[in-house]
Specification:
This protein has 243 residues and is of the alpha+beta class. It contains six helices and ten strands. It has an eight-stranded antiparallel beta barrel.
Length: 243
């Protein structure tokens, strides 16, 4: 099973962006997928806020200036366990690449990395019809955040009793994973996979606006401090969606 994820958020300059994406999709990702234990990769482009309806409740974003703010692109790789991404780690892996590849990697701006392990997973109604196996779905929403230790039990109970079970019957949902970090600023993450952006926009927004458990949900949400741009919503640009 793909229980570990290496997640990278970053921005790109306008100049050279097309060349970078061609290299990433045609060279970098295929070479990584040849490495022992690497199971899949998925690359996403952030969507403009006007294309992504959000719940009306407030959330807190970190003001820590040491946390990089990149979020234009999100690259995710899956493995069976986090040790795959520690032997070697991302820094050593990149340092050992050819000069041309290191030049491409240097184009990334405001790069932020987490390596996470899966704490819980549920399948949604679309899982049985999803053609791409382990590869993440065409649309994702990825929330990454920290929580005061005194509030973590309440958050765990909320995810376990309310949010994750609700995703098993949410139309348009493929999978939902609760993640815990071994590397990176954010200690926690929630990764939703949707069959399409349209499904995410309609069904998740409808679910979040429902009155059931609203007071509990608001309390949990207000106890979290999010990474810049979280919750990120993106559409998959590699690999191409199956027909």
């Amino acid at each position: 099973m793909d229980r570990a994820l290496w997640i990278t958020w970053y921005n790109l300059p306008d100049q050279g962006c097309d060349a970078y994406l061609s290299w990433l999709h045609g060279t970098y990702i295929p070479e990584l997928l040849k490495r022992p234990g690497y199971l899949w990769a998925a690359h996403y482009a952030k969507l403009n806020a006007t294309n992504v309806p959000r719940a009306s409740r407030k959330k807190l974003t970190t003001s820590d200036p040491t946390v990089p703010k990149g979020d234009q692109y999100i690259l995710l790789l899956g493995a069976e366990c986090t040790s795959v991404f520690g032997n070697p780690g991302p820094a050593a892996l990149h340092a050992g690449m050819p000069p041309a590849s290191r030049e491409m990697l240097a184009m990334r701006m405001e790069e932020r990395v987490n390596i996470m392990t899966e704490a819980a997973r549920v399948n949604g109604p679309e899982a049985k019809r999803y053609p791409d196996g382990m590869v993440l779905a065409p649309c994702i929403q990825l929330g990454t955040f920290n929580c005061d230790p005194k509030d973590e039990e309440d958050m765990l109970v909320w995810f376990s009793k309310w949010r994750l079970p609700a995703m098993t019957s949410l139309s348009g949902c493929v999978r939902t994973r609760k993640l815990a970090s071994v590397v990176g600023w954010a200690k926690h993450a929630i990764l939703y996979e949707f069959a399409s952006l349209e499904a995410r926009n309609h069904f998740l927004a409808t679910h979040e606006d429902a009155p059931a458990e609203r007071e509990w949900t608001d309390r949990v949400v207000l106890s979290l401090t999010h990474a810049p741009g979280s919750a990120n919503v993106g559409c998959r640009i590699w690999p191409p969606a199956s027909a």
